[in-house]
Prior knowledge:
By secondary structure, the chain is mostly helical. Helix content is 68%, strand content 0%. The termini are far apart.
Amino acid sequence: MEFLVASAVGLLTAAGIYLILRKRTFPVILGTSLLSYAVNVFLFATGRLVVDAPPILNKYADVTYTDPVPQALVLTAIVISFGMTAVVVMIALGAYLSAKDDKIDMDERAELSGEDA
């Protein structure tokens, strides 16, 4: 189970970094989303990977439990990352509509228009 979760975190991180290095805005937005998912899975895994364990201590029985704090942190992070993704998508959409292009590289555009960067 730990190897599967560690592999998922590594794969999400690698894909997110790869997409962030693209020259278009949409892959960069997807890359930041994948990186936030990788961090969320990592935070969730810090609360112990136990199947069918309650998140509450039982004072009458000595059973293993899952830590509820990482679950609350991940839930908060999901809401925040969704809101920030919506804001970044709207900014990118506004930039695309005003410039008619979604490239991130500004030096190439300055060379085409003949301006000094």
